[in-house]
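Repro case for the chain-ordering regression, as requested:
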Amino acid sequence: MKRVQLSEQHITYLLTILRSSDRPKTTAELIEALRSQ
Amino acid sequence: MQAAQAPAQPEFKGSKQEQELAAEAFNVTVASGRFFGEDAAISVALSALAEFYAGRDESKSVEEWTSELDRVLGASDHVFLREERESGVFFVTTRRGIPPVLEVPEDTKHSLASRFETPKPIPADRPARRAPQKRAAPQYDDVFEPARAEPVFADEDFDVASIVEQALAEMDAAATQEQDEIVEAEAVSDLSEVSDDEIRVALLQQLATDFSVAKFGDEWMAEDKVPRLSRGDSRRIRDYVAERGEPVTDVAIVQEVLGIRPNAQEYDLHRFAVNFRLSRESREFEFVGLQSNSLWSTTDLSLLAPSKRRPAEIGQDYRVLLVDSDDEAEAGDEGVIEHVLTFYEHANGVLPYDSNVRAVLGGPVLPDQRAAVLRIESPQNHESFYVELRFPTGNRGGYLFGFEEFFKEHLVPGAFLSLERGEEPGVYLIEYLPVSGQDRKILTLDEKKHRFKFETATFYCAPDEDMLLTENRFPKLEGATPLDDRSRRRPEDVLAATFERIGELDEQDGQRRYMAMLDELFCVANIERPMPASLIRQIASSADHPAFTVDPEADDVIYYEPPASE
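-- result from build under test --
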């Protein structure tokens, strides 16, 4: 398994998702959100 | 008022005429720098001097004066310094009549500014980047010695300096590894080629370290959106745990203490908030749950009676498990742990947290989680009790403890048992194969006399005959004394003692040699400490322990030749 680093855009997008959500998100949901970005 | 000091009048070389010419040129030069300091360099162009003289005495041309002055002034090199510059020849002197001292460049090699600006050279012996290694057979070399991080103060060879050096070396190695890992991370913009596991690791590395993000277990939220617990909330949760006298779930806290119904819109949010906020109050609360079951205890709640052996010692004994902690799980298809109880496990009421157990129970939920509490139910005996899972730490292996009474009541060393997940989260079922009662003389430890002895026991569980410590198989164990702690900590010493206890002695020409089968050694060595069969095999085949050898024709036959001095 190689080590990857998410881009600033990825992180910003995830933070936006978390801030706009009223419930906790699972890791799987975050991964799905990144893939469907 | 201070008068200007008259310039010195040096003596010049050459004929009288030349001396007069040089003295005049000197005066002209010094006059142009009359306000200079005594040692300050005063320079004059040879061409300017030549033009000055040619203007005054037209009998010679400028070129002739240039040649004449160059020769005369050059001869008095104790007064003039001749310099050839891009713009022509210059003569330099001072008001004291001596050549100026050339300016010595300031040594800035060790100045603070240069040290900041100059990068540190790459050391010649920079450690090579660690290449990913394929897993080989478990290596137990590091378990042959007692842990360095746990110095035994009674040891005469206890050396603080070596421990400090070791710690520093480990810190350096960790820093280097961390640096290498950072370098190795590959920035990606397109995630189509990246696996979910790789993204999961990247999230842990990048998002979990962001202070604006709250993470607990597998869940994430913006930190400022997570409700806070008031002091009153914390106190009521603490009282609730004390009142129940056992760890409580996050669900119970949310519903019973905070009074939030499961169908409330913000129920998940508050459940996350309880977990996340309590995880920050590590002085008062301790997370003792697993992935499927968030369980909270208070730091002053003691659930289990203390065992005979201290938890740290048991963890140290299970250090041997650390070497194969990355092995593939071998648990059954349905997540059932099948195990044969050893004497050590029976005596201490413990089970190893090896790869099989980990496959069923899972790992720690929080990075710094110390322990988890599991409820064990025995459907055969209608019993229920708590056990604690101690996760592995730096130099201690993981294990479950709290089975002591159950084992003593229902099982014997060598018994088959199984452990599997129950229907409720955090509940596990323990089962054994019941048989009609058997009366056998099996090994026990007489704690008063501190000796092993065989006693008749009646038991109703099916044993693995190869693991049953009966008098018929191992008569020499009768009256044997348990090893002292120092020997017990060293697996090779335990193995040597095991050979002497049960091995078949062959003596030729005064040379003694013991022979024993691997399964016998495994069975008996485990009366002293956890000794996996793979560890015994590793010691026997290791060049570091030449006293032990494996029969080249039969893998399971092992020999031990005691040192001649014994």
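Ordering looks correct now. The interface with chain A takes residues 181, 184-189, 191-192, 194-203, 205-207, 210, 212-213, 216, 218-222, 225, 266, 268-269, 272 of chain B (CB under 8 Å).
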